[in-house]
Design brief:
Elements (H helix, E strand, L loop, with lengths): L15 H14 L8 E2 L1 H8 L3 H13 L3 E4 L3 E4 L2 E2 H25 L2 H16 L5 H18 L3 H10 L1 H10 L2 H19 L3 H12 L1 H12 L4 E2 L3
Parallel strand pairs: 4-5
Antiparallel strand pairs: 1-3, 2-3
Protein backbone atom coordinates (compact mmCIF):
# COMPACT_ATOMS: atom_id res chain seq x y z
CA UNK A 1 0.00 0.00 0.00
CA UNK A 2 1.33 3.47 -0.85
CA UNK A 3 2.11 5.93 1.88
CA UNK A 4 -0.54 8.49 2.72
CA UNK A 5 0.45 12.07 2.00
CA UNK A 6 1.93 13.55 5.14
CA UNK A 7 2.48 17.18 6.07
CA UNK A 8 5.93 18.71 5.68
CA UNK A 9 7.17 21.98 7.07
CA UNK A 10 10.00 24.26 6.08
CA UNK A 11 12.48 24.71 8.93
CA UNK A 12 13.50 28.17 10.07
CA UNK A 13 17.16 29.05 9.78
CA UNK A 14 17.73 26.95 6.65
CA UNK A 15 17.70 28.02 3.03
CA UNK A 16 14.15 27.66 1.75
CA UNK A 17 14.76 26.57 -1.83
CA UNK A 18 16.64 23.32 -1.12
CA UNK A 19 14.06 22.39 1.52
CA UNK A 20 11.15 22.81 -0.90
CA UNK A 21 13.03 20.71 -3.46
CA UNK A 22 13.74 17.95 -0.93
CA UNK A 23 10.14 17.87 0.28
CA UNK A 24 8.69 17.57 -3.22
CA UNK A 25 11.34 15.07 -4.32
CA UNK A 26 10.57 12.86 -1.33
CA UNK A 27 6.84 13.03 -1.99
CA UNK A 28 7.36 11.95 -5.61
CA UNK A 29 9.80 9.17 -4.75
CA UNK A 30 7.49 7.86 -2.02
CA UNK A 31 4.52 7.89 -4.41
CA UNK A 32 2.63 10.48 -2.38
CA UNK A 33 2.58 12.61 -5.52
CA UNK A 34 1.55 10.27 -8.34
CA UNK A 35 2.37 10.31 -12.06
CA UNK A 36 0.12 12.70 -13.93
CA UNK A 37 -0.63 14.79 -10.85
CA UNK A 38 -0.50 18.52 -11.55
CA UNK A 39 1.62 20.62 -9.20
CA UNK A 40 0.66 24.24 -8.68
CA UNK A 41 3.28 26.81 -7.69
CA UNK A 42 0.74 28.78 -5.71
CA UNK A 43 -0.71 25.72 -3.95
CA UNK A 44 2.71 24.37 -2.97
CA UNK A 45 3.82 27.81 -1.82
CA UNK A 46 0.68 28.20 0.29
CA UNK A 47 0.96 24.71 1.78
CA UNK A 48 4.60 25.22 2.77
CA UNK A 49 4.13 28.89 3.73
CA UNK A 50 6.83 30.09 1.35
CA UNK A 51 6.98 32.43 -1.65
CA UNK A 52 6.53 31.13 -5.18
CA UNK A 53 10.15 31.72 -6.20
CA UNK A 54 11.69 28.77 -4.27
CA UNK A 55 8.85 26.56 -5.53
CA UNK A 56 9.61 27.59 -9.11
CA UNK A 57 13.30 26.81 -8.55
CA UNK A 58 12.40 23.41 -7.08
CA UNK A 59 10.25 22.61 -10.12
CA UNK A 60 13.19 23.37 -12.41
CA UNK A 61 15.51 21.10 -10.44
CA UNK A 62 12.93 18.30 -10.33
CA UNK A 63 12.49 18.67 -14.07
CA UNK A 64 16.24 18.24 -14.57
CA UNK A 65 15.99 14.95 -12.64
CA UNK A 66 13.11 13.79 -14.80
CA UNK A 67 10.62 13.79 -11.94
CA UNK A 68 8.30 16.44 -13.38
CA UNK A 69 7.40 17.88 -16.78
CA UNK A 70 7.07 21.65 -16.92
CA UNK A 71 4.67 22.39 -19.77
CA UNK A 72 4.34 26.09 -20.72
CA UNK A 73 0.81 27.44 -20.33
CA UNK A 74 -0.35 24.07 -18.98
CA UNK A 75 1.42 23.47 -15.70
CA UNK A 76 3.87 21.12 -14.00
CA UNK A 77 3.08 17.41 -13.87
CA UNK A 78 4.66 14.46 -12.08
CA UNK A 79 6.23 12.11 -14.62
CA UNK A 80 5.81 8.38 -14.86
CA UNK A 81 8.69 6.18 -13.75
CA UNK A 82 10.99 5.61 -16.69
CA UNK A 83 11.99 1.95 -16.96
CA UNK A 84 14.78 2.86 -19.37
CA UNK A 85 16.16 5.45 -16.94
CA UNK A 86 16.06 2.98 -14.05
CA UNK A 87 18.04 0.44 -16.06
CA UNK A 88 20.60 3.01 -17.23
CA UNK A 89 21.15 4.44 -13.76
CA UNK A 90 21.52 1.00 -12.21
CA UNK A 91 24.24 0.22 -14.75
CA UNK A 92 26.10 3.47 -14.04
CA UNK A 93 25.69 3.14 -10.29
CA UNK A 94 27.02 -0.42 -10.28
CA UNK A 95 30.07 0.57 -12.31
CA UNK A 96 30.93 3.44 -9.94
CA UNK A 97 30.19 1.66 -6.67
CA UNK A 98 32.06 -1.50 -7.69
CA UNK A 99 35.26 0.56 -7.88
CA UNK A 100 34.37 2.37 -4.66
CA UNK A 101 33.95 -0.83 -2.65
CA UNK A 102 37.23 -2.23 -3.99
CA UNK A 103 39.01 0.86 -2.68
CA UNK A 104 37.32 0.52 0.71
CA UNK A 105 38.22 -3.19 0.92
CA UNK A 106 41.79 -2.44 -0.06
CA UNK A 107 42.06 -0.03 2.87
CA UNK A 108 39.77 -2.06 5.23
CA UNK A 109 40.09 0.63 7.89
CA UNK A 110 38.86 -0.32 11.34
CA UNK A 111 36.85 2.87 11.91
CA UNK A 112 34.99 2.43 8.63
CA UNK A 113 34.17 -1.20 9.37
CA UNK A 114 32.97 -0.30 12.88
CA UNK A 115 30.72 2.43 11.48
CA UNK A 116 29.27 0.12 8.82
CA UNK A 117 28.51 -2.53 11.45
CA UNK A 118 26.83 0.14 13.58
CA UNK A 119 24.67 1.16 10.64
CA UNK A 120 23.64 -2.43 9.96
CA UNK A 121 22.61 -2.77 13.60
CA UNK A 122 20.43 0.34 13.16
CA UNK A 123 18.92 -1.12 9.97
CA UNK A 124 17.87 -4.22 11.89
CA UNK A 125 16.00 -2.06 14.42
CA UNK A 126 13.81 -0.33 11.84
CA UNK A 127 10.18 -1.54 11.81
CA UNK A 128 9.70 -3.37 8.55
CA UNK A 129 6.68 -1.27 7.65
CA UNK A 130 8.81 1.89 7.74
CA UNK A 131 10.23 1.82 4.23
CA UNK A 132 11.32 5.45 4.36
CA UNK A 133 13.48 4.93 7.46
CA UNK A 134 15.13 1.83 6.05
CA UNK A 135 15.90 3.45 2.70
CA UNK A 136 17.44 6.46 4.46
CA UNK A 137 19.77 4.08 6.30
CA UNK A 138 20.51 2.21 3.07
CA UNK A 139 21.40 5.54 1.47
CA UNK A 140 23.69 6.34 4.39
CA UNK A 141 25.41 2.96 4.01
CA UNK A 142 26.30 3.63 0.38
CA UNK A 143 27.26 7.24 1.10
CA UNK A 144 29.59 6.02 3.85
CA UNK A 145 31.32 3.65 1.42
CA UNK A 146 31.90 6.51 -1.01
CA UNK A 147 33.22 8.78 1.73
CA UNK A 148 35.54 6.04 3.03
CA UNK A 149 36.93 5.65 -0.49
CA UNK A 150 37.46 9.39 -0.78
CA UNK A 151 34.92 9.55 -3.61
CA UNK A 152 32.37 12.04 -2.34
CA UNK A 153 32.09 13.61 -5.80
CA UNK A 154 31.34 10.23 -7.37
CA UNK A 155 28.51 9.79 -4.88
CA UNK A 156 27.15 13.24 -5.72
CA UNK A 157 27.03 12.16 -9.38
CA UNK A 158 25.05 9.05 -8.42
CA UNK A 159 22.67 11.12 -6.28
CA UNK A 160 21.99 13.50 -9.15
CA UNK A 161 20.73 10.76 -11.48
CA UNK A 162 19.18 8.04 -9.34
CA UNK A 163 15.76 9.53 -8.61
CA UNK A 164 13.87 7.15 -10.92
CA UNK A 165 15.70 4.20 -9.38
CA UNK A 166 14.76 5.44 -5.91
CA UNK A 167 11.07 5.48 -6.89
CA UNK A 168 11.22 1.78 -7.79
CA UNK A 169 13.19 0.92 -4.68
CA UNK A 170 10.57 2.56 -2.48
CA UNK A 171 7.80 0.57 -4.16
CA UNK A 172 9.75 -2.69 -3.97
CA UNK A 173 10.86 -2.71 -0.34
CA UNK A 174 8.91 -5.11 1.88
CA UNK A 175 9.69 -7.30 4.90
CA UNK A 176 11.34 -10.04 2.89
CA UNK A 177 13.43 -7.70 0.80
CA UNK A 178 14.58 -5.65 3.79
CA UNK A 179 15.98 -8.81 5.39
CA UNK A 180 17.67 -9.74 2.12
CA UNK A 181 19.17 -6.27 1.69
CA UNK A 182 20.54 -6.29 5.22
CA UNK A 183 22.11 -9.70 4.61
CA UNK A 184 23.71 -8.29 1.48
CA UNK A 185 25.07 -5.32 3.43
CA UNK A 186 26.60 -7.72 5.92
CA UNK A 187 28.32 -9.70 3.16
CA UNK A 188 29.76 -6.49 1.74
CA UNK A 189 31.15 -5.46 5.14
CA UNK A 190 32.51 -8.95 5.84
CA UNK A 191 34.45 -8.82 2.58
CA UNK A 192 35.73 -5.32 3.37
CA UNK A 193 36.85 -6.47 6.83
CA UNK A 194 38.72 -9.38 5.23
CA UNK A 195 40.36 -7.04 2.75
CA UNK A 196 38.94 -9.16 -0.06
CA UNK A 197 38.41 -6.73 -2.94
CA UNK A 198 36.99 -9.31 -5.34
CA UNK A 199 34.46 -10.60 -2.82
CA UNK A 200 33.46 -7.06 -1.84
CA UNK A 201 32.87 -6.14 -5.47
CA UNK A 202 30.87 -9.30 -6.13
CA UNK A 203 28.69 -8.70 -3.05
CA UNK A 204 28.12 -5.08 -4.03
CA UNK A 205 27.16 -5.96 -7.60
CA UNK A 206 24.71 -8.60 -6.36
CA UNK A 207 23.20 -6.04 -4.02
CA UNK A 208 22.65 -3.42 -6.72
CA UNK A 209 21.21 -5.98 -9.13
CA UNK A 210 18.38 -6.71 -6.69
CA UNK A 211 16.27 -4.15 -8.50
CA UNK A 212 16.46 -6.24 -11.68
CA UNK A 213 14.43 -8.90 -9.88
CA UNK A 214 11.78 -6.54 -8.52
CA UNK A 215 11.35 -4.09 -11.39
CA UNK A 216 9.42 -6.32 -13.86
CA UNK A 217 6.93 -7.46 -11.23
CA UNK A 218 6.33 -3.96 -9.90
CA UNK A 219 5.98 -2.53 -13.41
CA UNK A 220 3.31 -5.13 -14.18
CA UNK A 221 1.47 -4.68 -10.89
CA UNK A 222 1.50 -0.87 -11.03
CA UNK A 223 1.59 -0.27 -14.77
CA UNK A 224 -0.14 3.09 -14.37
CA UNK A 225 2.97 4.43 -12.65
CA UNK A 226 5.42 3.40 -15.36
CA UNK A 227 6.49 4.64 -18.75
CA UNK A 228 7.86 1.87 -20.95
CA UNK A 229 6.52 -1.00 -18.84
CA UNK A 230 5.77 -4.21 -20.71
Amino acid sequence: MLAARSPRVVALGETVGPQVYRILREQIIQAELLPGERLSESDVAKTLSVSRQPVREAFIKLSEEGLVHVLPQRGTFVTKISVASVMDVRFVREAIEADIVRLVADRHEKDTITELHRQIAEQKKVPHDDRSAFLRLDELFHHTLAAAAGKAYAWSVIESVKAQMDRVRFLSVDDMQINRLIDQHERIVDAIAAGDKAAAEEALRLHLREILNSLPEIARARAELFDGAS
